[in-house]
Design a protein that fits this description.
Largest sheet: none
Radius of gyration: 27 Å
Number of strands: 0
Strand content: under 5%
Structural class: mainly alpha
Order of helices and strands: HHHH
């Protein structure tokens, strides 16, 4: 039993140790590795994990209805707050289409406006 656990853990920790030693000596730029990891490898891992499982709609009907209820319920709760502002839409909006950089007020102008 101990040999089996050691056979699994030892290669993992040896690779970690080699990476640590290399990073301490060379100080590499790892931004491109992080970008590939986040944009390619992590989604591929999630996809393969989900694709390898069987999904029966009848078994998970309660989960599906719960997800639909959460999405529709949060939209219905937000409706009274969004309607007066004219933000109600059934179409998916672009991400922040009306966003503009904030207008900064100079401290002198702010002081002059508040004093008078």
């Amino acid at each position: 039993m101990f040999q089996r656990v050691l056979g699994i853990i030892l290669p993992v920790f040896s690779i970690i140790l080699l990476g640590y030693i290399y990073a301490r000596r060379e100080n590499p730029d790892m931004t491109w590795v992080n970008r590939i990891n986040v944009n390619v490898l992590a989604p591929a891992l999630i996809f393969t994990a989900l694709a390898s499982k069987d999904f029966d709609v009848a078994t998970h009907a309660v989960l599906i209805l719960g997800a639909i209820g959460v999405v529709a319920g949060s939209g219905l709760l937000a409706w009274p707050f969004a309607k007066p502002r004219g933000r109600v839409s059934f179409a998916t909006p672009e991400p922040m289409p009306n966003w503009k950089p904030p207008q900064y007020v100079r401290p002198r102008r702010l002081a002059r406006d508040t004093c008078s």
